[in-house]
């Protein structure tokens, strides 16, 4: 029930207790009924009226006996509450009166005034709460009036007003929080975090689910868009170039959307693995041979220049056998033992991209010592041998046998062999055996060149050599485990410049029945003196192998070391012996005839030029076809003879 405009009820409303009228008395009602009965008693209706009056009288008497005390007490409490301006209590008291007699309330203006004043207090309090933005407290205070003034239109309006204000306040709060989430997401691009935060907000503020869901949908769409771009980049890569470009694009996307790092990095890892498998990487060496203690550094020589997303610094080096070759994190290899190992370059995913075979070689006599020997000389720096003008301090010289234990660690045996410079005639041999079985046999002539050899010795435990003569040797004997090792020839003595003069810069390493002439002992041909060259000897020893009637050859051996292309000079008969002798001069390069000259006493000195490209050993052979018995007696007390002399001079080498 509406009480009216509460603003018309002011605090001026005051009631003194002595001026409050007394509540209606049942006795007065009874007196009035009695008077009415008396006036109309003589009429025909007297009987009926009297009957009704008696019924009402009985009812009033019953009411007075059962309720007058509570009604009066509640009424008086209400009056006192109004006097004390406790309008809430006043309304409660008047409500009690109404509970006893609904009609009683209608006759009282106090109830209406108390309700109006109570509402003024409540609305004033709500206004204060409204000014503080405490809309929910204002609603609670209005709801607290329900037990006293239910279904009041003013209260209902106020409730609607504050409910709307509270809704708007919460809406502003929610929208502010949504704005904050959007701001953070705009900065971080972390849509997943934004969605999670908004879902929590939706649980906290279900009344605003629609607004929140709209923002969740936007974040979800943006997140799906980024995920789609990631998948597109990855799926379109199908070649090394494509993988590399895909990685570049994904890294750009990662900078733009760091919150997607897990998803993007997963795709980068996938493309990197594909790139590593597809791209070809090469080392600067595929095989190296080292001596024990030596080092070498491996490096990546080839990565396609178009590839930008491979970081070799993140790759690792490993050795298949660290007891043979150790490799550090920078590709530096150190030979620590004999044998073979593979140095492998691994990518971060564990794949081997490139490898280099490392052979750690051993030299017999230096690294591997003999365990049994009879007769054979093992050369040292103090006990050397010469072959083709070069000095060797590592090797073996016969005759005799020698054995080594190599433990099955090696696959190849290599070295060089040949006659010593002191060998003049006769044939010899060297036999190499592995675990008692013949692996190779070398037959050697006294005028052979030095030769290289390689012999397979895989799984061989014991290695032995049988040597038949003291005028041959086997040198720089190397044990290896990888590719064949090029045997090492020592550099012969001499000055091997761009040009060289035989006899002066390069001396003969072997002379057979011949001699070199020098500035100190020159010779003459056609009355001209020549300082450097070679000529056959004029006398020889007679023995069973060289009958007096046989032609005799003189030889001079030179080691050119394969350095020169052209040999030029002059040749002819030497002055001083009156004879009609004739002969031949041959020039042989590595046992192959390069040139032959016929010459006789009285000939003029003639020039020559010979191509010696790639020639290591050159031999000059002079054969005199005429000889006489020694008519002047024995030559140095030795039976023999005298022969015509021919020579070669001014022999110039050039490259």
Give a description of the structure.
The chain is an alpha+beta fold and 655 residues long. Among the domains are: 6-115, no CATH class; 282-362, Immunoglobulin-like (Sandwich), CATH 2.60.40.1080; 370-480, NPCBM/NEW2 domain (Jelly Rolls), CATH 2.60.120; 499-654, NPCBM/NEW2 domain (Jelly Rolls, Sandwich). Strands 2, 5, 8, 9, 11, 14, 16, 19 and 21 form a nine-stranded mixed beta sheet that branches. Strands 22, 24, 27, 30, 33 and 37 form a six-stranded antiparallel beta sheet that branches. A hairpin with a 2-residue loop joins strand 25 and strand 26. Helix 6 (110-131) runs antiparallel to helix 7 (135-143) and helix 8 (153-188) runs antiparallel to helix 9 (191-204). The longest helix has 36 residues, at 153-188.
